[in-house]
Amino acid sequence: MEPRLIYAASESSADLLYATGFFAPDPFLYLCDAAGASHMVVTALELDRARRSARADHLHEWSLVQERYKQQNPDGARGENPLIAFFLQELQIERVQVPGDFPLGLADHLRTAGIAVTPAEGPFWPDRACKRPEEVAAIEAALEVTGESMAVAIELIRSARIGDDGWLYLGDKPLTSERVRAEIHAYLVRHGAMPHHTIVAGGRQGADPHEEGSGPLPAHQPIILDIFPRMEKNGYWGDMTRTVCRGTPSDRLQRAWEAVREAQEVAFGRIRAGADSQQIHAAVTDHLTAAGFPTGRSAAGLQEGFFHGTGHGLGLEIHEAPRIGQRGEPLLEGHLVTVEPGLYYPDMGGIRLEDVVLVESEGCRNLTRMPKFFAI
Length: 376
Fold this sequence. Notes:
The radius of gyration is 24 Å and the shape is elongated. It folds into two domains: 4-124, Creatinase/prolidase N-terminal domain (Creatine Amidinohydrolase, Chain A, domain 1, 3-Layer(aba) Sandwich), CATH 3.40.350; 129-366, Creatinase/methionine aminopeptidase superfamily (Creatine Amidinohydrolase). The chain has nine helices and 23 strands. It is 33% helix and 23% strand.
């Protein structure tokens, strides 16, 4: 096989974290040679920790590589790029395959040093899309914490009183998106999870699917809660969305929420190994349209209806392969995907529900245990 090379910080490179299981905030070098043996080159600061926890056949220390380089190149250039080229030459590596986000300057330097560099076409580790049992367990644990933080948010909204002005209050103060988000984040951090751009979008703010939400929360209107934290221990993500209404929703809102819940069931019933993801997405879209919620553009030119994908892969990245959307691809046993249909209208706000399921040979298994309800 062609040697594979990554130079990155594993906190931001899912490919590197997947290969090594080693969290580091600074870049380090990873090489899988032609024989399948793995090498890591780390600083003295990280060496002992890497010995304890990293998945690598051979560990190397940068300072020792540097010493050998200086002995052979006393007047050689300084910096990381010459050291990396020297290290590869020591191992008689003449060509490497790299991820698509490999540093351009380093790639150019390696080519100048006579080492061929080829970006991978498609995923660098295709096996990442099909989750191992221990990965499924890690994501289930992330979803458990995510669900607990969701329960904290919903209970806070439930405890709010409805003011005569149509807004929610805690005591004498308005209940705001910021307050609910802060409680979600506090719970997540206390339980080893890092929040990222949590959505608490009430009323018409929810008509934009990625609007995080701000200001007072309305009564009798939908409030989208979308929570997607990353576990500090292992880097796996949770992802969950619920939409609730404190008060009495209109008939249109109730019908929209029911249509989205039913659309999820449509997807659950079609997800299995071998299913085409585009056909699943089309079935979800067709159901929402038949329920009276078409997709298109408003008179003002704004998107409305269901205009995003049905789901995406989840793992060491919040969005990874596969996708359930307009571009078809077959689902495989072991794929782990979100199922998150939604409806968005500028005059109504938004409704979205999101669970995470594991693709199995004869169907799918829902890993999300948080119940679904609308009016609270």
